[in-house]
């Protein structure tokens, strides 16, 4: 059978999600875990359209950039996919990938900024781990879902999470195993703010008081600097309840050297140092002036809007999630900043019609991009648009619409928000040049 076959391949390229690519005659092969320049043996897994999916069996000739992955669970855990590539080469791969997407769309960038990078390990301040009780084995599993499967990989530590004593997963797994309601916990979410670390336990049914006390005792023993918080969450749309400590501090992270409040359910950028550098770069590129009218679209909890509102008086922040909008508005009011937070769905571009015409627009959409907004920006001929994106393909698609209408890409730069993975964040500054005015 063809799926049992092995063959030798020379890898000459990489897919946008970091798999090695080889060509043999007219056939194309994707090889997860292989790098350009390598000679490898693979097993064929099956064919999708014209591409063979394969599994790496052995590496006959390794690439100069190959390194030993730091994590023992790498390639079983579905989290990271570039740990086998030396860090500078990861950044280089991401830079080339974004440039390739841009050139596919015929985009011209006047100036590329140097990539923004920070410490490539221990950076991830948000993560979700699965918990499962196996009746057969009469024990709990705690870890990440394996790539493309429902199986949990048990982990003791994760090198992309911060090295807090409270993130000792072996202790939590053992602790959960002793609970009466050990089959009621399905997930632990990590929210690492700058002033505290919150663990949110998703529960199917309420835990007994005795079980809650056991978890609190464990939290106390792991909370070296008293900054650990333990929350129980009974369901996606239900509020979480803090069981440790009794009076939890409000979570904040620092942006623009100021604390920004964050709620447990908020979207927030996963990499603190890269986020801070990204916001500083956005401010340096946009140069907000006191009288500027600025729209911050897909504003989240104000990562960009609050720093902008400190510098200018007419900032409108638009976001679809009501709880982030109200928290942002409250925060701005408490600091006497004139920021207008608006709850609206930006897939309907008409929602911007009543806002004062902007001098500058910052947009930071989710992965799908902001296709619905491009006509609005084209019609408005905004003098500066700063586009922040976590998906190079939808970014290039949206930029090509703007470029066709007369926008010029002044600057672009990548930000390595997600080291050890293929994901890349990009910032682009566009200016509007009216061809009729020359
Ligand atoms: C990539 S995040 C950026 C958030 C923020 N700019 C930041 O840096 O933290 C995208 C944000 O867009 C919001 N969003 C997603 N779809 C939206 C829509 N259709 N209309 C408005 N906001 C949306 C999400 O809730 C999320 O807060």
UniProtKB/TrEMBL annotation:
<feature type="binding site">
    <location>
        <position position="319"/>
    </location>
    <ligand>
        <name>S-adenosyl-L-methionine</name>
    </ligand>
</feature>
<feature type="binding site">
    <location>
        <position position="364"/>
    </location>
    <ligand>
        <name>S-adenosyl-L-methionine</name>
    </ligand>
</feature>
<keyword id="KW-0949">S-adenosyl-L-methionine</keyword>
<dbReference type="InterPro" id="IPR029063">
    <property type="entry name" value="SAM-dependent_MTases_sf"/>
</dbReference>
<keyword id="KW-0408">Iron</keyword>
<comment type="similarity">
    <text>Belongs to the class I-like SAM-binding methyltransferase superfamily. RNA M5U methyltransferase family.</text>
</comment>
<dbReference type="InterPro" id="IPR002792">
    <property type="entry name" value="TRAM_dom"/>
</dbReference>
<dbReference type="GO" id="GO:0032259">
    <property type="term" value="P:methylation"/>
</dbReference>
<feature type="binding site">
    <location>
        <position position="298"/>
    </location>
    <ligand>
        <name>S-adenosyl-L-methionine</name>
    </ligand>
</feature>
<dbReference type="InterPro" id="IPR012340">
    <property type="entry name" value="NA-bd_OB-fold"/>
</dbReference>
<keyword id="KW-0479">Metal-binding</keyword>
<feature type="active site">
    <location>
        <position position="390"/>
    </location>
</feature>
<dbReference type="InterPro" id="IPR030391">
    <property type="entry name" value="MeTrfase_TrmA_CS"/>
</dbReference>
<keyword id="KW-0004">4Fe-4S</keyword>
<feature type="active site" description="Nucleophile">
    <location>
        <position position="390"/>
    </location>
</feature>
<keyword id="KW-0489">Methyltransferase</keyword>
<protein>
    <submittedName>
        <fullName>23S rRNA (Uracil(1939)-C(5))-methyltransferase RlmD</fullName>
        <ecNumber>2.1.1.190</ecNumber>
    </submittedName>
</protein>
<keyword id="KW-0411">Iron-sulfur</keyword>
<keyword id="KW-0808">Transferase</keyword>
<dbReference type="InterPro" id="IPR030390">
    <property type="entry name" value="MeTrfase_TrmA_AS"/>
</dbReference>
<feature type="binding site">
    <location>
        <position position="269"/>
    </location>
    <ligand>
        <name>S-adenosyl-L-methionine</name>
    </ligand>
</feature>
<dbReference type="InterPro" id="IPR010280">
    <property type="entry name" value="U5_MeTrfase_fam"/>
</dbReference>
<dbReference type="GO" id="GO:0008168">
    <property type="term" value="F:methyltransferase activity"/>
</dbReference>
<dbReference type="Pfam" id="PF05958">
    <property type="entry name" value="tRNA_U5-meth_tr"/>
</dbReference>
<feature type="domain" description="TRAM">
    <location>
        <begin position="1"/>
        <end position="58"/>
    </location>
</feature>
